[in-house]
Amino acid sequence: MSGATPMELATARRILALVPHARRFPVGHLRPPTGVIPSFVRSLGELEFVLLPQADSLPGVHFERLAAWIENDVGDPAGAAAVREATAAAPSYVAACQAAYERIRDRGGGAPPAPPAPPPPTAPAPGPGVWPPGEA
Asked: N or C terminus: fewer CB in 10 A for the chain?
């Protein structure tokens, strides 16, 4: 999402919140040989998880209805427009799934990135034959 304007805090809270149970969105997973496994999502984070590309399954999503859900129930018209545009331009259903995943991920569907790893200890390693460290 480089180059994009940061969103307002109220907007971020609204689009990352769970929608009420009655307004959840139906999705499915095509997982051979089992077939389609139906499910529902209640947030952009859950949607990102469903759309995550996997080698052994394919999400089942109606993209026009998905964009309408993002716009009306999640309350994110900009995210809905990005999903509509990306999925309409995709040459195949699989490419549309990947494009929708990328737009949701970039919009903030998942958890924030993990903090950087702590720096290594600054104390020098003990020399040969010194154990435990600190005792000479």
From this structure: C
